[in-house]
Amino acid sequence: MSSIYTDSPLPLIPTPKFQTGKDDPFTIEASHMALSHNAFIRGFNSIYQQAPRLELAADKGSFVGYCLAWVDCVVTHHHYEETELFPNIDKAAGKKGLMDGAVHEHEAFYGGMGRMKEYLQSKGPDFSSKELLEIMDSFKDDLHNHLKAEPPAIVALAKYSTAENPIDILSIAETAGKKQVDLGFLFNTLPVFFLNMETATFERGMWHEVFPPLKGFTRTVMLRLVPMWQSAQWQFVSCTHDGRVKDLAV
């Protein structure tokens, strides 16, 4: 019997725009980051909630694929930050190391995520839910602390943007983000991001059909057509294609 997804064991984080009502570029970019982080949180929670309830070997194989896609999505996101986003912020500000604190936070949970990936790759459908959850427990606090801390750190960067040296944070983030998407990532990983994003009710629905910024045919392709590839994996997501929490697969 499936059950509705819940935001546990990791709680969601608020967006700076919802908290402050501001809509300057740094607040908006930080809010987009918070929304992305919440997709990672829902992915973590959906794994944590369903792992102990899996029974069929076929389901366990697809579930392993889902878990590995989640790991790859989170790791790729933070890799692009370290190699594209943060260096370009430093370049625009004319200062080095502005986001070094975030990089150190990444290091705190990379080891645990690496162990999770190695464990699932070695065990496959024979994984133990108890052992998997123990690995996840080992890094969940460090991961969540980082996901909470980074959006306010982006807001704080506004002090480095001046009339003489403006920083176009939205353009920097958009350009950096595009560099992480190739065909493999699009089909094998990205659905775990889009389909763990609840927007219908979160923060009174203020982000519904606003973020992710997909419109028309592109939205249909990304949220409906792409997930048809490896659909057995995506049955374990927490949300529907239209941004609503759903019954979990198990």
Automatic annotation (TrEMBL):
Pfam families: Hemerythrin (PF01814). It comes from the Eukaryota. Residues 33-150 form the Hemerythrin-like domain. PANTHER family: EXPRESSED PROTEIN (PTHR38048), HEMERYTHRIN-LIKE DOMAIN-CONTAINING PROTEIN (PTHR38048:SF2). This is Hemerythrin hhe cation binding domain-containing protein. The lineage of its organism: Eukaryota, Fungi, Dikarya, Ascomycota, Pezizomycotina.
